[in-house]
Amino acid sequence: MICLTVNNVAKEFGGLRAINDVSFKVEEREILGIMGANGAGKTTLFGLIAGHLRPTAGDIRFHGQSIVGLRPDQICRRGIARTFQIVKPFGGLTVLENLMTAAMFGVERIQQPERARQHCQTILAELDMTRLQDRPARTLTLSGQKKLELARAIATGCELLLLDEVMAGLTPTEVVEMVEIVRALHHARPLTILLIEHVMKAFMSLSGRVLVLHLGRTIACAPPNEIAADPQVHEIYFGESA
Amino acid sequence: MTPVAKEIVPWIVLSLAAATLPSIGGDYIVGVGMVLLMWLALTQSWAILSSMTGYVSIGHVVFYGLGSYVVVVSWQSLPLAVAIIAAGLVSALFALAVGMPVLRVRGPYFVILTFGLAELVKFAIIALEARMGIASRLIFGAPSIQFIYYAMLLLAAAATLMHIVVHRSRFGHALRSLRENEVAAESVGIPVARYKLYAYVLSAVIPGMVGGVMGLRSTYFEVTQAFDPTISLTIVVMAVIGGGDGVYGPLFGVVFLTVLSEVLWTRAPQLYMVILGLLLILFMLKCPEGLIGRYTTWAAAREGKQR
Q1: Domain holding A38: CATH number?
Q2: What ipTM does this complex have?
């Protein structure tokens, strides 16, 4: 089954084409990595899917239904959640309250706070964050806040998860831990993941397929080992070979 | 007992105590009590918008003024209860109409906009009155101070109850989340624009009714008095002095400032504003988190020590 279809999508900011005629499909339960240099349009693509930006042209379909023109909160309730490259925790609220917001307003829409609390506590346990549950979110370390972004997205009850550089700025040990967490979450529930990452080892080991963006265009979409051998990708990343 | 019921009990006790005041105190005490309850009703309402969402309004007098105007204009042609309810409705409808555009801007821009909006409405009504050839309206047969006291008690209780219910609800949780980060709030499914509008409308209803009742307190109605910007500012000062993120902040701020101004006003009328100004500056420098905020950190530290 196809989870997400992106069809000839373009996004212009003034005269700048940040995304230019991009098309791809994501299967259910797949992990699709998106790579590209700074300014390639990766985060813009997430903004378009999550509804923070509206495409200039093209169509985006989730389970066959177009989601173009829906607000971010409506898209979240359909089952798409994202994390932010620059973390956006609810700083003054506790870690548990951060998750409860997602559980009460996302796909699950749990009406009773007490049930939402229990639901979120199991997610925190899954991510080994139980001891942090009563800490104000702003007092967490960067790696803690990145994990919180991930936990909060999961708490919405999403089917499609957009992970925007959840490993950037983490130490090598923390990266290993984060890879394991993502893998375990993906294993435990029917989750489809789009992944933007610059930490290559983690990225290549998680992704089933990799989509390469360059200046807003798709230049390749293949399994990681083929991408690693692609001369065009080499050229973009390392310059022309002598 | 449900948590909400538990939280309401002390307030019921307080309300019952306040209800006995007119039978034991003279007109002076009842007058002070009435002013205190008025500020409590206004500040609790304000907090539903500004404490919960972080959208700080320094123009809440616009609702008070509109309510006053509705009641004064319909005085002796509508039954008073109907007029007061109409005052609340008009304020709410006004908030609904202007809310969408006003709540698009954030931070200092929102603050300035609320102030400007209140001034705009004030001068629009002055122009309207001038067009009709009315400079100020006299009010004959206004209700007694005891009546106004009880009306204020009812409104203060209603505003406090509304704040408690919103604070504990799923809706309140959403408001607090969007206060912390609006983009994150909408990406976890909160219809941010709609919820902000609801908060704005809720925070307008009771100030409209308070203004309606207070419009009958003096024997004449003057637009500049009903839309006095000092009212908006006093609400903010009381809320900030009280501090915290709940229903007790407004109570402590209101009691503190009302009692203090009363004492200063009677003991040192020449220095009243000077001393009040100095105290406020001191407060902001030494205790910016407010009385309740200070108490919470103190209690948390004490609990930490005992462990």
Answers
A1: 3.40.50.300
A2: 0.92
